[in-house]
Design brief:
The chain is of the alpha/beta class. The chain has six helices and eleven strands. The chain has two domains: about 180 residues, 3-Layer(aba) Sandwich (Rossmann fold); about 50 residues.
């Protein structure tokens, strides 16, 4: 199924891009399991305990972050637009004795029946957007779902100094628990003017040495300057905006590649602007 240019990484205006489908969802889950999420989970768990619950994770995917947070007893749910990713999250949660709640909604227009003390967009999630208007839409949805004084945490990749991977194909492989082998190759291109990257990913599945399935997927994302990324929070009306080196309390460094941002919804409702009086008003 194709969607309109979904700038949360699941579509796009003029650039149609498919959701993560079956094979890509399987690949993503395997690769995520092969990386260590503990530092990010520990950082976010501490933040949720400090800033308050319930919490919402945007783009919860296969549950790489959501499930460990639930396992720590935290009150957190997720949203994601990929049914294959969500199905894997729910299955993995059930296998761990957890009951994850994930709503099939987009970051651009999600509407949930409850509000939250903390909302998180983790794992470089701001990079899933390519258009300023879509970031503005997503940040307004976050603002609408936060309780007064609630916090929004997001992170992003800084504009790289060099574009060494442009057009170069790289690849690797990984084994699934059933013995199947997933091999992939990818090509990336980063535009130095718009800071938008294009990522072509081809995944192949081998069973007993035979190729049984192939999927190709093209995706887009974006890197940001520090001022750009903080400006989105200011424009949305957030206060107390703080940027640090990723998963750290230290300020951004010259060598930083990823940045963590924490901002707060105002503690009191903003007063409505007075109605403008016309020249004949009494």
């Amino acid at each position: 199924m194709r969607r309109r240019a979904a700038r949360d990484g699941r579509g796009g205006d003029g650039m149609e891009q498919k959701e993560y489908r079956k094979l890509h969802a399987e690949w993503y889950e395997l690769v995520s399991a092969a990386t260590d999420p503990d530092p990010e989970v520990a950082y976010l768990a501490a933040k949720i305990r400090e800033l308050g619950q319930p919490a919402l994770e945007l783009g919860s995917g296969t549950g790489k972050i959501l499930l460990p947070l639930l396992a720590q007893g935290l009150d957190v749910i997720g949203i994601d637009t990929s049914p294959d990713m969500t199905a894997r999250c729910l299955a993995a949660g059930a296998a761990q004795g957890l009951q994850p709640v994930v709503h099939a909604q987009s970051m651009l227009d999600f509407a949930l029946p409850s509000s939250f003390r903390t909302i998180i967009l983790d794992s470089g999630g701001l990079g899933l957007f390519t258009e300023d208007r879509d970031i503005a839409a997503a940040f307004q949805r976050v603002m609408a779902h936060l309780e007064l004084g609630g916090h929004f945490l997001y992170d992003f990749q800084l504009v790289p100094a060099h574009y060494e991977d442009n057009d170069r194909w790289t690849g690797d492989w990984i084994c699934a628990s059933d013995g199947a082998v997933l091999a992939w190759r990818k090509q990336m291109r980063h535009d130095p003017v718009t800071h938008v990257w294009r990522w072509l990913l081809v995944v192949e599945k081998f069973v007993d040495g035979r190729l049984v399935e192939t999927e190709a997927n093209e995706r887009w994302g974006r890197t940001y300057t520090l001022e750009q990324a903080l400006g989105y929070a200011r424009a949305a009306g957030f206060e107390d905006i703080r940027a640090t080196d990723w998963l750290s309390a230290d300020p951004p460094q010259a060598t930083s590649k990823l940045i963590s941002v924490q901002c707060r919804k105002p503690r009191a409702a903003q007063p409505a602007l007075p109605a403008q009086r016309g020249p004949h008003s009494s």
